[in-house]
From TrEMBL:
Regions crossing the membrane: none
Species assigned in the record: Mycolicibacterium moriokaense
Keywords: Cobalamin biosynthesis, Methyltransferase, S-adenosyl-L-methionine, Transferase
Source taxonomy: Bacteria, Bacillati, Actinomycetota, Actinomycetes, Mycobacteriales
Any single Pfam family the record assigns to this protein: TP_methylase
GO molecular function: precorrin-6A synthase (deacetylating) activity
Domain Tetrapyrrole methylase: 4-219
Name this protein carries in UniProt: Precorrin-6A synthase (Deacetylating)
Tagged with keyword Membrane: no
GO biological process, one term: methylation
Gene3D superfamilies referenced in this protein's UniProt entry, alphabetically: Cobalt-precorrin-4 Transmethylase, Domain 1, Methyltransferase, Cobalt-precorrin-4 Transmethylase, Domain 2
Pathway(s) where this gene product acts: Cofactor biosynthesis; adenosylcobalamin biosynthesis
Amino acid sequence: MTRRIHVIGIGAGDPDYVTAQAVEALNDTQVFFAMDKGDTKDDLVALRRHICERFIREPGYRFVELPDPPRAKDGDYRQAVADWHAARAAIWAEAFESELAPDGVGAFLAWGDPSLYDSTLRILDTVAGSVDIDYDVIPGITAIQALTARHRIPLNDVGEPVLITTGRQLRDNGLSGSAVVMLDADCSFRACPPQTRIWWGAYLGTPDELLASGTVGEIGEQIAEMRADARGRHGWIMDTYLLRSADS
């Protein structure tokens, strides 16, 4: 018998972003697995629980919180991520075998969309090498979609491409045209020319949502201050932004 796992995209923070397909998957699930990232991110698990309470028609499901292994901050970045994924895979494999019946249905609720800067699918591929599982993916509203909707802007210029990248890559390679930047803890937009346009958002889709737009020269430092203040108050921050070079 094969354990089934749903990977359910739950959107960028607003429960109204949860799709009808996701609701059906929620109601098909017996055990929800969530990573415990410490007290500062308890509200992320709380929101997942709230989504289940809102959309699941017949209670009886369980939440299993798994310890998130630490990730090395020094040394080779890719190797550190690979080691972190391997440690997570070992924890998940043990949890599936101990918490989920051989023919049971489990799920991970992925923030935003599981295909975009999320490790769940890669780790499940590793787990499938040692545990008999099958999994499907339910797409969700991404932070990118929420960002452009809240700012009421198109993602791309007419006939032009858009790069989706990270703060690390922006610092290393610079900006050409339009780029969405995620996973940026260092406000890397400040290295862009001051006339670069920026549309920034944090905690998108939640009551704590923050938005700002303008040029890097006009509001770059203001965004950095808003970000630092919000992180200090909440203990964590999730933000993303769209950049457009002046000549695009």
